[in-house]
Amino acid sequence: MNKINISIRTQLITLFIFFVCIPLLVFGKLWYDKSTLFIEKSAINFNEQIVKQVNGHLNDYFLELERTTFPLILHPLIQEFMTLTPEQTFERFMITNKIQNELLQQIVFGRPEMYSFTIFSKQGLSVSSLGSSMVEKRYQAYLDMPSSENYSLLGIRWEGNTPLLTIIRKFKDASTYQTSGVLIIDLRLNVISEIVDQIEVGDTGFLWIADAQGQMIYHPDKTKMGAKAPDWYSNQVKNLDKGAFIHSEHNVKDLLVFHKSSYTDWIIVSQVPIHELTAELISLRNVTIWGGLALVLLVIIIIGGFSLSLTNGLSKLKRLMRSAENGNFFITAPEHHGNEVGSLYRGFNKMVRELRRLIDEVHTSQLREKELVIKQRESMLKALQSQINPHFLYNTLEMINSYAIVEGVAPISRMSIALADLFRYSINDSMKIVYLQDELEHVRTYLDIQKERFPYLDIDFDVDKSMITHAKAVRLTIQPLVENSFRHGYEKHRMKPVYIGITSERNENGYLLRIIDKGRGMKRETMDAYNDSFMNDTNTSSGEAGMDEALTSIGLWNVHQRVRLLFGPPYGLQIIQSDEQGTVIQMMLPGVSEE
């Protein structure tokens, strides 16, 4: 499986996102949620206390009102009024005046919330602080109202534009314990309004009151007084004693806290918009978010700039290293950085300089070594050549030629002439560059002598005569290859030399010359070892098996090195084929137009 390479820059950005940005966002979200929950709980507790306080004040008010009216039940005038009949007109007039002047006016005085105070007897007689009997039609309904309580708070009714709260209190006969009459009190809501309005619940929050039947007793919006409570009231508030929940309507969320009075059975509801509770928190959150974003941006700029300079330096060093891998040792890195990157640059420059120096030294030593080897082998060759006096040799060959002509022996004449030409060409400088035509003529002379030895030898010259007159070659490089074919392809294996071929071919890199025989070739391992040596310019450790020292010195490796030394890569030898069918050795030489 391939390993995924991730750049340092990508790693830094990933680490920053996962270990700075994401934790900051998660922490901010948790902080906001926990803070909002805490504020809601605090608001619920606070509003519960407010609702309980309002309930307490209302209970005290109605208890005080109940205590105020309690003496009327036992008052003699009231008891006497309850026993009157409609026929007792004079007594009714007298007692009614006394009740109005002595009792009702005293109770109503100093209490502006009292709209009316009316006593209604079971006999159909009434006395009121208003002095009017226009409202007597509703008294009978109050008298017949089934109730186990003697003191009851009824709902809201409207008198013109004034909402009134009706309270009834039944009179009981002391002997029969039957209802003998009813006390009806109509209250203005100014006292209740004062009790409720003195409590502030936020900027737009408010309190409202509903009775046990779900009728709104009090609401800041007077148009809702006496109306039915909202639909959600019956499902979430009406049957509970207390609680709190969040109600959403028209995309507005309100926190509702309610508490039921055990005395009046009224439910006081506190309604506060959530946005008021969390406004400061939202403001703080926004400030925190913008501050966090600014901080993150600052960190990104600082860390990003630093990481960018670091990764740019490393990327540049990576490019320089890649260039050095490709063999360019003349590049240098800037050394003006003072941090670790600068140290890497300086180390890189030192490494490149040292590599360049070592390569120069190795190259120089290899050239010297090759020159020494070539000179040594050339010295050995010249030593062998110098063992025969050329002038003595030429004179002897001329005499042999003369006797052969006189005696009419043409083969001896031809061989002596060829041998003289062969030695005359061989004694010249072996490192001299000649035309390929001269080198091939020397080989042809050598093969003419071999033809005399082996009449059945087939010699095949397939070369382009127009090219060999211009192509360059190294003196005495082809004849040793042909001689190796005789010695190692045929004679070593006791085979008759039957074929020697020399072909040529032109390609884009130069001029290819091939020496072909049909003897037995070398082993595959030996051929591969020679080709590796030719390719890498390293001599094979095995040497050329079966060759004496003199022949080894002018063997394949010597030929290749002389060609390579004069013409350079990629010129030299390559063994194309060497097996039971024969051997093909290829020599690459410079093209016709090349030096």
Automatic annotation (TrEMBL):
Its main location: membrane. It is found in: Cell membrane. It is a multi-pass membrane protein. Residues 308-360 form the HAMP domain. Keywords: Cell membrane, Kinase, Membrane, Phosphoprotein, Transferase, Transmembrane, Transmembrane helix. PROSITE patterns: HAMP (PS50885). It comes from the Bacteria. It holds the Pfam family HATPase_c. SMART domains: HAMP. InterPro entries: Bact_2-comp_sensor_kinase (IPR050640), dCache_1 (IPR033479), HAMP_dom (IPR003660), HATPase_C_sf (IPR036890), HATPase_dom (IPR003594), Sig_transdc_His_kin_internal (IPR010559). The chain crosses the membrane at residues 12-32, 289-311. SUPFAM superfamilies: ATPase domain of HSP90 chaperone/DNA topoisomerase II/histidine kinase, HAMP domain-like. This is HAMP domain-containing protein. The lineage of its organism: Bacteria, Bacillati, Bacillota, Bacilli, Bacillales.
